[in-house]
Amino acid sequence: MSMLSVLPFLKPIHLQSPRSSAGGQRRHTLPASEFRCLSPEDAVSVFEIEREAFISVSGGCPLHLDEIRHFLNLCPELSLGWFEEGRLVAFIIGSLWDQDRLSQAALTLHKPQGTAVHIHVLAVHRTFRQQGKGSILMWRYLRYLRCLPGARRALLMCEDFLVPFYQKCGFEALGPCEVSVGDMAFVEMQHSVRGHAFVRRNSNC
């Protein structure tokens, strides 16, 4: 049985557009807003958003297209996409990790018995930035993780300038991350999935 079928929070949430036909019957339209787990078929759309969001800032992407497909095949239930009228506007991709801190291997591995969710990437389409969508999506994702029986913590690594954003999302800094990519250094951050509820706040993400 799919994990999606037994966890009510994982079911797609639709906010329907209030359009109606002349006869008063609602037209068949795409939902105005939908949150759902991603599938391998979403990989190209994910990569296009990620590439634009990260290459202009850091010159590289956290995940390449084949790595996106890899995680969406292995653990699609650890991803979450935000769709507006069928168009992907923001997403998170995660995998499970089984150690206290992230290591270089965490960039490519999914450990099914792990209790830490490694958040590889959060990205928002350029058209929808500066609207608080990043913080809203993270809030939904952390709520979602509370429905997963084995999840205890969420871990991520980020550059210094993103630390305030993730602190607003309820993460705490653990210090320098062991992982490096080229000459880039990162801060490792943690959020307790079983701890206090995350308070949604506006952000510039």
Helix content: 10-25%
CATH architecture: 3-Layer(aba) Sandwich
How many H/I helical runs?
4
Runs in which pLDDT lies below 50 for 5 or more consecutive residues are 1-24, 195-205
**Strands of the largest sheet, in order across it?**
1-2-3-4-5-6-8-7
**CATH topology heading:** Aminopeptidase
* Helix-and-strand structural type: alpha+beta
CATH class: Alpha Beta
Overall shape: it is globular
The topology string of helices and strands comes to EEHHEEEHEHEE
**Residue share in β-strands:** 15-25%
Q: Average pLDDT across residues? A: 84
The biggest beta sheet reads:
8 strands, mixed
Report, as a whole number of angstroms, the end-to-end distance.
Answer: 36 Å
Quick one: CATH superfamily?
Gcn5-related N-acetyltransferase (GNAT)
Q: Count the beta strands.
A: 8
Number of domains: 1
Computed over alpha carbons, the radius of gyration is 17 Å
Explain the overall architecture.
With 205 residues, this protein is an alpha+beta fold. It has one domain: Aminopeptidase (3-Layer(aba) Sandwich), CATH 3.40.630. Helix content is 22%, strand content 24%. It is built from four helices and eight strands, in the order E-E-H-H-E-E-E-H-E-H-E-E. It has helices spanning 43-58, 65-74, 133-145, 163-168, and strands spanning 13-15, 33-36, 79-84, 87-97, 116-124, 153-158, 172-176, 187-192. Strands 1-2-3-4-5-6-8-7 form an eight-stranded mixed β-sheet, sandwiched between helices. Helix 1 packs across helix 2 (65-74). The longest helix is centred in the first third of the chain and has 16 residues, at 43-58. It is globular. The chain starts with 12 loop residues before the first strand and ends in a 13-residue tail after the last strand. Belongs to the acetyltransferase family. AANAT subfamily. It holds the Pfam family Acetyltransf_1.
